[in-house]
């Protein structure tokens, strides 16, 4: 049998986007993902291929994931493919008086009352998670995100890609935050999903670490210092080894050696696929610049500590694009050697101009850069009102944005 050659840096990408299923009238969560899958497959599968995009279940029954069936060369055509799947699912949900809702957290879901685990194939995995961590909280049952998978062919490419991704993770909430409301109220954070995500495995801290991955730049070192430690820590709670696989790792980016990729997991779901993919495009462009050592050397990138990157990450979780970055060393890594401080939004605008100097910034990314993260636009649309009517109107409009494939403006 001929062995498949591993994909090199940026030869292909994989994209995943999660959505909630909600009642069309009340917008309350509806645990009926299995009904959607049954309607096209005739059985309760974990995944069903629908051409370029596949549909799959997640931990809880009100979330459905859309993902590229196979790795693709670029984002070209993906907006249309994802939007087609959104339309197909909404058509299946319409007779059930339900529809898809975007954003990273349901704004008023009570997970302790409304959470329903996936009850079909592979449910032993979900049962194990629930037994160990109690998945009724927001950190497990009310999180929707977009994932970007990028390949590496060998140890040298892994080092370059992991070093670059560690540097990009802290500023991703500045673009992608979309979860400013939890249990019907503003919390003061723009990215409540990541706040819940970073603490949902506190019982076994090595699973999530500090979200920003440790400075490990070889596959063997990653196995030893991250994966093996994590497996050892969970073993007393998981004697049958149900969860002792690479996907247990919950850092903001995780190595998947079974397919030679690194998966970025800190992106909140946006209002429509066009917005998700515009953000993914600029992330890829920035990672290419870093892996090519366009501004600083690989050794300088490797020298960035978890502590310094975590400081910036927590700032963008709180304030998204308005977070002020006071770390000249970090700004130098991003190609701003003379800048002492700037907001994360200003940094992204500068980066986008440089990264897309020859082919222009997409209209969707321009909208994000000019008007702020979706979380900021949601807050502006709420206009400091906490009424149920106002919140229903804003999130109803977000459902319409997803259905129609259009950007959201306050």
Would you give an account of this structure?
By secondary structure, the chain is of the alpha+beta class. The chain has one domain: Creatine Kinase, Chain A, domain 2, CATH 3.30.590.20. It is 43% helix and 14% strand. It contains 17 helices and twelve strands. The strands form three sheets. Strands 1, 2, 3, 4, 5, 6, 9 and 10 form an eight-stranded antiparallel β-sheet that branches. It has a two-stranded antiparallel sheet with strand order 7-8. A hairpin with a 5-residue loop joins strand 3 and strand 4. Helix 6 packs across helix 10. The radius of gyration is 20 Å and the shape is globular. The mean pLDDT is 96.
Give the N-to-C terminal Cα separation: 56 Å
The helix/strand series, from N terminus to C terminus, equals: EHEEEHEHHHEHHEEHHEEHHHEHEHHHH
Mean pLDDT: 96
Helix content range: 40-55%
Shape: globular
Which runs of at least 5 residues are low in confidence (pLDDT < 50)?
none
| Structure annotation, total helices | 17
Second CATH tier, the architecture? 2-Layer Sandwich
Secondary-structure-derived class = alpha+beta
Give the number of DSSP strands. 12
- In total, the number of domains comes to 1
Summarize the main sheet. 8 strands, antiparallel
Rg result: 20 Å
As a percent range, the share of strand residues is 5-15%
CATH class: Alpha Beta
CATH topology value: Creatine Kinase, Chain A, domain 2
